[in-house]
Amino acid sequence: MSSPLRVVTVNGSYSAPSKTGALLELVTTTLADHFDLDVTRVEVSTLGPGFTSALERTALSPEALAAVEAVEQADLVVAGTPVFRGSYTGLFKHFFDMVDQYALANHPVLLVATGGGERHALVLEHQLRPLFGFFQAATAPVGIYASTGDFDGTTILNPKIYSRIDTALGDLKPRLQAAIAADTDAHAVAATAA
């Protein structure tokens, strides 16, 4: 029996429900059509003072530390943020400031953003990709951006968004299959040793 794919979504939005949260949910729902998933959803705005007041990792609350560790141990991180003043939100950046510098090296990360209009789409390339480049993460070649016009409330209407998600996940599929195989092999070795 294969291990489920450990997916962690990080939502940098300050509001709930949010368009960013809806887009992250659509990504995981689409991914669930292809893999058995174990999904952890991190909403940075709900982590509270034990997160927002922490100046270093050792000061994080147990809940915030668990969220950071979940990202570090994920097979896939889906990192999403609304565009705020031309970039990711401050809490989104603060969250990733707490992630170990080498924990995401060569690990797949899918970049997701939402914004008021099409002119904000470059946040994927100019802010998010360099951030995860610092971590040496294996960011998916295709990022997913949706603007206000792609939604009715938090329902995504634009079929191009669905197509872009399929393309992005298609690019990641071989790497994700390898992660599942490695996890399954590790569990088999541990079971044999026990």
TrEMBL record:
Pfam families: FMN_red (PF03358). Keywords: Flavoprotein, FMN, Oxidoreductase. SUPFAM superfamilies: Flavoproteins. It comes from the Bacteria. Transmembrane segments: none annotated. Residues 6-147 form the NADPH-dependent FMN reductase-like domain. GO terms for molecular function: oxidoreductase activity. Gene3D superfamilies: 3.40.50.360. InterPro entries: Flavoprotein-like_sf, FMN_Rdtase-like_dom, FMN_Rdtase_MsuE-like, NAD(P)H-dep_FMN_reductase. PANTHER family: FMN REDUCTASE (NADPH). This is FMN reductase.
